[in-house]
Amino acid sequence: MTHSPPRTSSPRTPAGSANRERRTAGAIVAVKRVFGAETGNYFLLLGTTLFLVLFGLIMVLSSSSVEEISSGGSFFSAFLRQGLYALLGIPLMLVASRMPVSFWKRWAWPAIALGALLQLLVFVPGLGYGYGGNQNWIRIGNFTAQPSELVKLALAVWLAWVVTAKKDLLHDWKHVFVPIAPVAGLAIGFVLLGNDLGTAIVMLAMVLAALFYAGVKLRVIATAVVVVSALGIAVASLSDSRTARIEAWLTGCSNENDFSNYCWQTVHGWWALADGGILGSGLGGSRAKWNWLPEADNDFIFAIIGDELGLIGSLVVLVLFVVLSVTFVRIMRSTTDNFSRIVTGGVMIWIVGQAFINIAVVLGVLPVLGVPLPLISAGGSALIASLLAVGVVLSFARHRPEPVDLSEPVTPSDRSRSAAARRSRPLV
């Protein structure tokens, strides 16, 4: 009688299981390296940004649905477009957060040159087109883009590179002037040629912020502010519609003749905010979005937020942008790299400053300037550019700064070599 041999497990099974476990562990480590970070500032900035984007998608759906239907579109048309832009922008933000500081320094000059070239395309017949009096978009088939949004990001990185490279020469106003004034002036001038005063003001604020964070003397910055203000008044006076809009704002929209023209948007924005009260009319309950308030899903989306979510919802939005600004400041204070600090400051002025300009316009504190609410308003170029800018700052916030070694004091010879280098360094 024969007996079959007892079954034994294959000797390859433990080894195969161990290999699978090692591969799984390796994949987990790789994912952690891609999406992990060492600082709380990184997660605070990322979480606040994502929350604002998701909140914006909800408000775009609510504020745009009626106008989309009345124009022959779908209830979800604007929401789906904005969702597509978010699906493109968020991965780009995460990719940008992985880039080293050297990458942004290396691409500073090409970025500003490419941005200026794209901005010039808005004046090419058949390619550029205008809307609402602004010639600030390009159209290729069904694809539209606003190059000035990408110019903002390029300007933030380029300014930081220039003032960092000339950090030992900024006590001389000539080194502050060259090349910042010509290059930044051309970039902002191209935007002004398209009649987009709001975007130009934001870019000017970014330039002044970069000078301030770089340690330029306050009297030089004050002189620049005076010159820029005089130029701004001159530019505003060249446009009859802009002058009339400013006059209507100065009179508090009390003139009945302005009600149906320059004050229509402002007054209906006020009515929407007043209709919301403390708790709001409920999500989707706004009456102003029924073709009464122009740009309800874009420049005046804050009025719809106040209408549907009330004072409480409006304050939540304000608090979120305050959290963003505090996070930017924490990142600036935690880094030892001047370039990273100045870029972060420029992005902060761009996103948070533009948010408060937009809210001030809705409240009537400022005249209508045509700037969207960052990360919330409808608009693909603005959303993607803002997410890319946040990704750049995330790349600075990812790692903790290395401690500075103070054990080796600076010798007199080091100081003399540094002084000689400063005297011999030419204008950038």
TrEMBL record:
Keywords: Cell cycle, Cell division, Cell membrane, Cell shape, Cell wall biogenesis/degradation, Glycosyltransferase, Membrane, Peptidoglycan synthesis, Transferase, Transmembrane, Transmembrane helix. GO terms for cellular component: cell division site; plasma membrane. The keyword Cell membrane applies. It is found in: Cell membrane. It is an enzyme of class 2 (transferase). Residues 1-21, 403-428 are annotated as: Disordered. Residues 1-14 have a biased composition (Low complexity). Its EC number is 2.4.99.28. Pathway: Cell wall biogenesis; peptidoglycan biosynthesis. GO terms for molecular function: lipid-linked peptidoglycan transporter activity; peptidoglycan glycosyltransferase activity. GO terms for biological process: cell division; cell wall organization; peptidoglycan biosynthetic process; regulation of cell shape. It is a multi-pass membrane protein. It catalyses: [GlcNAc-(1->4)-Mur2Ac(oyl-L-Ala-gamma-D-Glu-L-Lys-D-Ala-D-Ala)](n)-di-trans,octa-cis-undecaprenyl diphosphate + beta-D-GlcNAc-(1->4)-Mur2Ac(oyl-L-Ala-gamma-D-Glu-L-Lys-D-Ala-D-Ala)-di-trans,octa-cis-undecaprenyl diphosphate = [GlcNAc-(1->4)-Mur2Ac(oyl-L-Ala-gamma-D-Glu-L-Lys-D-Ala-D-Ala)](n+1)-di-trans,octa-cis-undecaprenyl diphosphate + di-trans,octa-cis-undecaprenyl diphosphate + H(+). Pfam families: FTSW_RODA_SPOVE (PF01098). The chain crosses the membrane at residues 42-62, 74-95, 107-131, 143-164, 176-193, 199-216, 221-239, 300-326, 347-369, 375-397. Peptidoglycan polymerase that is essential for cell division. PANTHER family: CELL CYCLE PROTEIN, PEPTIDOGLYCAN GLYCOSYLTRANSFERASE FTSW-RELATED. Belongs to the SEDS family. FtsW subfamily. NCBIfam families: ftsW (TIGR02614). This is Probable peptidoglycan glycosyltransferase FtsW. The lineage of its organism: Bacteria, Bacillati, Actinomycetota, Actinomycetes, Micrococcales.
